[in-house]
Design goal:
two-stranded antiparallel ribbon, alpha/beta, eight-stranded mixed sheet
Length: 362
């Protein structure tokens, strides 16, 4: 067979194969070009959902409205501040970083001006339980909070109380307000404490997720005595308990009974965290509160109550969900029970003297 006869008879077949190859190449080229765009769109949507989760319904965020701990890094304005020196640490007398790279916040380890710029336009919610006689602590709590807590930032004080009429009227700075949320009372003070996680979980769904960016749970029977600002904010933060920050884990008052959902073995544990001050993004606090509440329900069904109630469950949760920031004992202290050590430069949030037996009665 001559070559021209071969090409003549096979031209249609060759032409078909060539067209099929070109079409296949174009198809797969488009697919491979489409995959990154699809993935990018998926990540972008995921970031946007993460960023908006727990925030108010609002117009699209501008570059200057971004918050830390989201997918976008916030832009800060031009400012002058001292340069950090890698070989000259700001503190050498205390631990500044956890083994999982969460910073431990001490005086002298941060620049408030930079942080205030990063957290500009952030709204912080403060959950305060003033149930039964604990309502008497509200006045001092709010007055000192207005002087020291998140000064210059938007704040909503969520007062959870069974006595709305007894909530005092305190002058507030611009952009700050009090929201009273009526809750039920319980006969035992232990039940009041154990149900706090349930209330935080429920109200997070109902309104916190739609009204604030970060949520802080703070004990009402304390007062602010020094600056407490946005340096504490992170996805999830806990505070070192002033009575155990220097202790070995075997001395921690974890729940040691295996029957309880709060059980932690003696060979486990990072720190002992105080329930007096913790928080994070609303979504993370919601997860924490929901998990702790569910754990208390299981304990109740099994006829057991954790040794330190919600604080025991909080410590169990933070052991397996490592906080992204840890606050030093500067942020929770009891001047009557503890002597101030030299490395504790500031006492920011301190216990108010009280008669526990009297205040916990009806």
């Amino acid at each position: 067979m001559e070559l021209r006869d071969f090409w003549g008879k096979s031209s249609k077949s060759w032409l078909f194969l060539i067209l099929l190859f070109v079409a296949s190449f174009g198809f797969y080229s488009n697919v491979f070009n489409w995959i990154p765009r699809w993935r990018q769109r998926e990540v972008s949507q995921s970031c946007e959902a993460h960023h908006l989760q727990g925030q108010r319904e609002s117009p699209p965020l501008s570059e200057g409205d971004c918050y830390p701990d989201t997918c976008r890094v916030p832009r800060v304005p031009r400012m002058l501040y001292p340069k950090a020196h890698v070989l000259q640490p700001t503190r050498v007398d205390v631990l500044l970083m956890t083994p999982w790279f969460a910073p431990i916040i001490w005086d002298g380890t941060y620049d408030s001006a930079i942080l205030n710029a990063q957290f500009k336009n952030t709204t912080i919610g403060v959950v305060v339980f003033a149930i039964k006689k604990y309502v008497v602590f509200l006045k001092l709590f709010l007055e000192t909070a207005e002087k020291y807590f998140m000064v210059g930032h938007r704040v909503i004080y969520y007062i959870l109380t069974d006595r709305p009429a007894d909530v005092p009227q305190i002058p507030l700075q611009e952009g700050r307000r009090v929201v009273i949320l009526k809750v039920r009372n319980y006969t035992r003070w232990q039940d009041v404490v154990l149900h706090r996680m349930e209330m935080i979980s429920n109200f997070s769904q109902q309104r916190f997720l739609h009204e604030v960016d970060y949520l802080v749970s703070a004990d009402v029977d304390m007062k602010f005595s020094d600056h407490v600002g946005v340096e504490i904010l992170s996805s999830l933060f806990g505070t070192l308990h002033p009575g155990f920050y220097a202790s070995d884990r075997r001395r921690f008052t974890y729940e040691r009974r295996p029957l309880s959902q709060a059980y932690i073995p003696e060979d486990e544990g990072d720190f002992y965290y105080a329930a007096a001050l913790y928080g994070g993004s609303v979504a993370e606090v919601y997860r924490l509160a929901t998990a702790c509440h569910q754990a208390t329900l299981i304990d109740k069904a099994n006829g057991i109550e954790a040794v330190w109630h919600e604080e025991s469950h909080l410590n169990k949760y933070l052991l397996y969900h490592k906080p992204t920031k840890v606050l030093s004992p500067e942020y929770v202290w009891d001047e009557r029970m503890l002597r101030k050590p030299p490395y504790l430069r500031r006492l920011r949030y301190v216990a108010v003297p009280k008669n526990h037996a009297q205040i916990r009665s009806r």
